[in-house]
Amino acid sequence: MNNNVPRDEELEAPPRLIEALRQASSERIFVPPAIDRAILKAAERQFSHSGRGRARRVWWWTRLATALALVVALALVTSQWQRVAKGRFAREDVNHDGQIDILDAFALARQVKQGSAHDKRLDLNGDGIIDERDVATIAAHAVKLERGGRS
Amino acid sequence: MRTALMFLLCVLAAPLFAQQPADEEGRGSFRVVDIYVDSKGAPLAAYQLRFSMTNANVKILGIEGGQHPAFREPPVYDPKAMQHDRVIIAAFNTGSTDELPKGKTRVATIHVQTTADEALQCRLKVQTAANPEGTKITVEATWEERRNK
Predict the structure, then answer these.
(1) C-beta of residue A142 within 8 angstroms of C-beta of residue A95
(2) Given B46, B76, B84, which is nearest A143 (Cβ)?
(3) Which residues of chain A are at the B interface, by a Cβ-Cβ cutoff of 8 Å?
(4) Calpha distance B7→A129 (Å, rounded)
(5) pLDDT in tens, A84-143
(6) What pTM value is reported for the model?
(7) Contact B65, B111 (CB under 8 A)
(8) Considering only alpha carbons, which residue of chain A is nearest residue B84?
(9) What is the pLDDT of residues B4-25, one digit of tens each?
(10) Which helix (DSSP H) or strand (DSSP E) does residue B33 occupy?
């Protein structure tokens, strides 16, 4: 322990410094107008730069958000369209397997035989009756060479 | 002079006679192809096959039904296939399981005309087949040229 080192409570500023500080607070400091203008211009420049950067960032985020929104919207529309397309079958596609073949004629023939052919869409020849002639229409469609016989 | 004229006529007429065998060849030979479907034990209620021939100058002349009573009627086909080398044939029967073939059965016979004596080269592809409930089943389709008419 060194007894010559003063404790914090005992520290005191030199009297000349205390006097100079007292005079400084009461005196008005003169700042030349040129320096004032220079500081103002520098500040304006600084703030205008940061403002432009922020605007650019906002613009980029807006573009990104718009692009994401478009992608999501497109995905939603596509899935909805696929769902609708799946639910829509050709009239001749009686068994709803996405193809028109002899199995559709067979399915309708079974319905006709059982007396359960009531879907008016299956009146393919438009004679008001769903019968063997409609079955024959589907069968003929199934074996057509131009279409490869498949839908 | 007369002899020379006769000789010239003979020379000019030679190609006409030479073409006669070709014309006879053009009439070609009539062949019969049997189409079989093997449903591997499942009752066969419906089938659809695509038949085509890769030989040159071959034409389909007619299509008959099969051997089993369920498919004795001629199958459905596009009339435009006549005089061409490919056809899609299809048939079904709404009878009960007992009335349907369950193994290998001849479902159709195709009559063709060829201009050559070479062996027939046919392709047969199963497009679909089903059991009496309309459920798709796996079947095997084969063809055989009938040797004795």
Answers:
(1) no
(2) B76
(3) 95, 99, 101-103, 105-107, 109-110, 113, 136, 139-140, 142-146, 148-150
(4) 76
(5) 665 567 888 999 998 999 999 999 999 999 998 888 888 998 899 999 999 999 999 999
(6) 0.63
(7) no
(8) A145
(9) 655 555 455 554 444 444 344 4
(10) strand B29-38
Write down the mean pLDDT value for chain B. Answer: 86
What are the distances in angstroms from CA A42 to CA A11, A49, A56, B78, B95?
Answer: 42, 11, 21, 89, 98
Instruction: Say if the Cβ atoms of A103 and B81 lie within 8 Å.
Output: no
What's the gap in Å between the CA of A142 and the closest CA on chain B?
A: 8
Q: What is the ipTM of this complex?
A: 0.79
Mean pLDDT computed over B88-116: 95
Residues 6+ apart with CB under 8 A from B31: B111, B112, B113, B114, B120, B145, B146
**Cα B40–B51–A89 angle (5° rounding)?**
80
